[in-house]
Amino acid sequence: MSAQIINAVLLGGYYAVLATGLAFMFSVMNIINLAHGSLIILSAYGLYIAGHMLGIPLALAVPLVCAVMFGLGCLLYRGVLARASAGSELLPLLATFGLAIILDNLLFQVFGADTLSLAPLVGDLSWASVELPGDIWVGQLSVYILIAAVAVIGVLEVILRRTALGHRIQAVSQDRATAALLGIDTGRTAAIATGLALAVGVIAAAALGLRSAWGPYAGAAQLLFAFEAIVIGGAGSLWRVLAGAMLLAFAQSAGAAVHPQGFLIGGHLAFLVAVFWRLQAWRDRLSALGSARTAA
Amino acid sequence: MTPSPVLRAEGLSMAFGAFKVLDRVSLDVFGGEIVGILGPNGAGKTTFMNLLTGAYRPTTGRVHVLGEDVTHLATADRCRRGIARTHQVPRPFGGMTVFENVLVAARNGRGDPSGDPVGLAWQVLEHTGLAGVANRKAGSLGLLDRKRLELSRALATGPRVVLLDEIGGGLTDAEADRLVALIRDIQRDGVTIVWIEHIMRLLTECCTRMICMAGGAVIADGLPGDVIDAPAVRTAYFGAAA
User: Membrane-spanning residues where (chain A) (predicted)?
Assistant: First the structure.
């Protein structure tokens, strides 16, 4: 039992890494980036090229690909998202959905359908494990991924709350017109924020590639887990993403305990419960507002 | 030689589709003035302000700041040239503290970014009386303090001219008086002020000059007393000739 709990916590760490970039972009720009999963897969191929083909050690490849994806994120904002978000709310959703399809098929064209992994790059780390008291075995890599998740969220929170850039990002996310009135270059700020979100995706790509394997169409599944973690956790601080990711992992583990095929269903159920619970809370607030108005 | 204006609007027009909101409005504002703008709802006052800050592009006309044509500059660049504005309904960044709200303006909005933005932000907060609540979340402030915060952020950008959009609305008389005293202070420090207001008393107490807008045009321009007594203003603003 305690082994399952520990493993769920560690799996939650992976989902948190997966979800952080998506949550960051949503909270900063109100854009649900449906290409989030595909961009992570693109980063994974980037790490694969750097590691396997160019022979760059992973510890160097990650910051390198981070830098590339940061630049790509800035371009993505300037080229696509800025135009899309000037239109209706639906437009960024459609634009990123289209981008996901293009990316997936492009990756298939270039890399074929082969399933790849980064595990060979790190020797035996991907299966090394340590024994905890009580005959519990914990994968080393999962622990590192959880630590990475906490570190990534911590760093992003510090950037947002403590730095000049973070204050600019907060200002732009809360009220773009007023931010511009105070001299903030809103386009540049949003481009940097998109770059940051994509750079965080590289950490997720490394986690994905080390703990398992991927193919060109693996993006959709990653997007789904990330999305579910965020909805379960709720908007606000990025730490809620971590909590949501943990809950998702717990629900999946509980599902798997009930039935061997219950893993995904458990997660989806938790997601649906969260959606309906939010909806109900929202309705209650609306009706409370309504009755307050009638009373007045 | 006549002094050159701090802010010049030259034949500004704005049309949304076939609906003309503003029709060739020209205005020169000189250093040290407090120019009050009054006019009935729909006169085009707020649109005029939005054209000055660059929130909208005018259909025709130009905007100059200190002799420089800023018509094609984005809002952020105009801010750094010296135009600041406050909103009728204050729009603080609620998730940030009062201090951070002002700091973000001091860091990004000044044309001459030399000097310490942190020190400047504190100085502004001391001046506007918000230093005591500097570390509170901006979303938790009451209305008067929210209006002070709007003003503080505008001041932190080191403006040459501040555009005030109905800053007195919703305040009690005593609160409005405190705000007026602050605005006078700001003007004495060398900042020019253009002020849209529905509360006539505040304008007549403060303004060095008043203009009245109606139907998207300036219909009177002069000393406050003269403008209020002008027959065209009486008709447009107070309804039928009083």
Answer: 6-24, 31-50, 56-78, 90-111, 141-160, 190-210, 230-250, 262-279
